[in-house]
Amino acid sequence: MNKTLIAAAATALTVGSAQTASANEAVILMEQFYEVADTRPFDLSALAGFYAEGFVDHHPNPAIPADAPVGLLYQLLADGAPDSVHNIDMILPSGDDTAIVVWSYEGTNTNTLFGIPSQDPAAAFAIAGIEIWKAKDGKLTEFWHVEDIAGLMAQLAPK
Question: What pTM value is reported for the model?
Answer without folding.
Answer: 0.82
